[in-house]
Design a protein that fits this description.
With 174 residues, this protein is α+β, with helices and mostly antiparallel strands. Helix content is 30%, strand content 35%. The chain has a seven-stranded mixed sheet. The mean pLDDT is 91. Keywords: Transferase. One of its GO terms (molecular function) is acyltransferase activity, transferring groups other than amino-acyl groups.
């Protein structure tokens, strides 16, 4: 666990006690656009998900961690997805739940911690992120941390009656 601790936050595995937090987050239509969700999740489905959250990234090809402040309160989630050990790459996503917690360095620290984990523990060559073109805070975050814009997917996300472009960023561990 010490590897996943920063100056102001730490990352930890999901626990059964996170059910209410996950229920609120996953059922927030405001984030469905970035999560690809199209319908609400029941507590039962999320409880079953939590019961399997302990599975190894090599088995389920993903890892979801809670972002916690030093007092232990959950303030967001950070994910690894589409884990590809053959090609040594993985996707990353992050959400800081409360507006008041954003733009205070939490996302920067969480991405730094998890990127270091990806490169030093998992031994991967690259991490990539997908960011909607209008998401200035995320574009700033990943650019500042050395992720390079490598492409743009045109009309990639259909939301609220229109298409949005998605930008692909990657960070390569050279």
């Amino acid at each position: 666990m010490l590897r996943l601790k920063g100056r102001n936050i730490f990352l930890r595995a999901l626990e059964p006690e996170d059910l209410d937090f996950l229920y609120e987050l996953e059922n927030d239509p405001g984030i469905w656009e970035i999560s690809g969700t199209t319908a609400p999740y029941s507590r039962h489905v999320l409880k079953m998900y939590l019961e399997n959250a302990h599975k190894d990234i090599y088995e389920v090809k993903q890892l979801r961690l809670c972002i916690c402040n030093l007092e232990g309160a959950v303030i967001g989630l950070i994910d690894l997805f589409d884990f590809d050990p053959k090609n040594l790459r993985v996707g990353m996503g992050i959400i800081i739940c409360q507006e008041g917690q954003r733009n205070k360095g939490v996302g920067t620290e969480a991405v730094e911690i998890l990127t270091n984990y990806v490169f030093s523990v998992l031994g991967l060559r690259q991490v990539y992120v997908n960011v909607l073109e209008g998401n200035a805070p995320s574009i700033h975050l990943f650019s500042k941390l050395g992720f390079k814009k490598v492409g743009e997917k045109q009309d990639w996300i259909y939301s609220n009656g229109s298409f949005k472009n998605e930008i692909l960023y990657q960070k390569i561990n050279r």
